[in-house]
Amino acid sequence: MSIVRSRRVGLAALSAVALVAVAVVGEGTARATANPTLWNQASASGLPAGSQIYDSVTLGGGVNPTGSVTFTLFGPGNPTCSGSPIFTATRPVNGNGYYESSRYTTNAAGNYNWMAVYSGDAANHPSAPTPCNLPSAEVAVAKRIPVLTATRSWTPPSASDTAVLSSGAGPAGPTGSMTFTLYGPANPTCAGPPITTSSRTVTGNGSYASALFTPTAPGIYQWVATYSGDADNLARSTICSDPANGFIVTSVSLTVVSGSPTTVSRGGTITVTWSAIASPTACDWVGLYPVGAPDGGRVTAWKYTTGAAGGSVRLKFPWAAPAGNYEIRLMANNTIIRLATGGPITVVWP
After folding, report:
1. How far apart, in whole angstroms, are the C-alpha atoms of residue 50 and residue 15?
2. C-alpha angle 197/216/227, rounded to 5°?
3. Which of 33, 106, 146, 242 could be stapled to 168 by a disulfide with Cβ–Cβ 3.0 to 4.6 Å?
């Protein structure tokens, strides 16, 4: 009996050892490294520059994966995903499933390419980065539609137009040009050639002013402002019938102003002559301005007129006046309402 019992005890001990061995093998199997896969899907194409885009992945085939997924963005104009990415985002992983990057605000049109990679952990191998130019991970960003408004200014005898460009995209804002065309005095449909055209270089969102124009005949005039567009922005234009850009000239002033000589040395003196002021006052005045300076800006020198419809005064350029071109402006009655413009007068430094 003792021999039989000892054999049973021995068999039981062997069975326990076998169970432990199976458990160890089972535990080792659970820790075997897996090869997770990533399926990459970016946000929709077609949104304009300035919109937000993002990437997402579905992680599958992992064994209770942890670690992180890193998203990198390339472009626009980088179809090989070379060099440094323009944006990087990392998301922690807690199991197989869906993970999404943070948003990136685009500032230019073109094609953007996302790539993603899983870091791996103790139970899962890292994944290879998803390929560049993967169709599901490419986002095509369209040109932005900027906002263009314009308002005319009509202060006899001169007219001008000011355009405001806003919501334009680009690394430094919109570029290109702003062109102002004026139609009239009897052309309400803006057909045929304009009577004057001027352009300004666009260097971002903001205000752009046309050159001044002095009408020579009564009638209805209409400005049209046109933005050229660029690589990131669509072209825009105001319409001919926009009342904010039209003005009516009921009569034309024949007021003129001029200066002589037209070239002087610094500190030199010129004779300013005017004529045909319709309603002269003793506080009408003439001033010397750098060409293109605003009427309310810096006056180089000035003097009241004689109060007559026509006459002349002498104006001296300050000794420190910079060399360059100046113009004479005849202003009404202690205001900056311009009656006439003359020049240019060129100042030279000996």
Report:
1. 70
2. 20
3. 146
Amino acid (one-letter) located at 80 = T
Tell me if the pTM is above 0.85: no
- Inter-residue contact 276 to 254 (CB < 8 Å): yes
- The predicted model gives 62-91 an average pLDDT of 96
Contacts of 286 (CB under 8 A, 6+ apart): 257, 272, 274, 302, 303, 305, 313, 315, 328, 329, 330, 331
Is the preceding omega at residue 294 within 30 degrees of 0, hence cis? no
Residues 42 and 54 sit within 8 Å (Cβ to Cβ) = yes
Alpha-carbon gap, residue 130 to 67, rounded angstroms:
17
Residue 107 has pLDDT above 80, yes or no: yes
Residue 5 confidence (pLDDT) above 50: no
Please answer whether residues 328 and 345 qualify as being in contact, where contact means their C-beta atoms are separated by less than 8 angstroms. yes
What is the overall mean pLDDT for the chain? Answer: 88
Q: Is 229 left (phi over 0), alpha (psi -120 to 50) or beta?
A: left
Over the stretch 248-301, which tens digit does the pLDDT of each residue have?
A: 887 666 678 899 999 999 889 999 999 888 789 999 999 999 988 888 887 889
Coil, strand, or helix at residue 76? coil
The whole-number pLDDT of residue 31 equals: 57
Distance CA 77, CA 346 (A): 48
Task: Locate 92 and state its tokens.
Answer: 């922690």
d(CA 137, CA 131): 9
Q: What is the DSSP string of 290-333?
A: ETT--TTS--SEEEE--SSSSEEEEEE--TTPPSEEEEEEEE-T
Radius of gyration over alpha carbons of the chain, in Å?
38
Residues 6+ apart with CB under 8 A from 251: 218
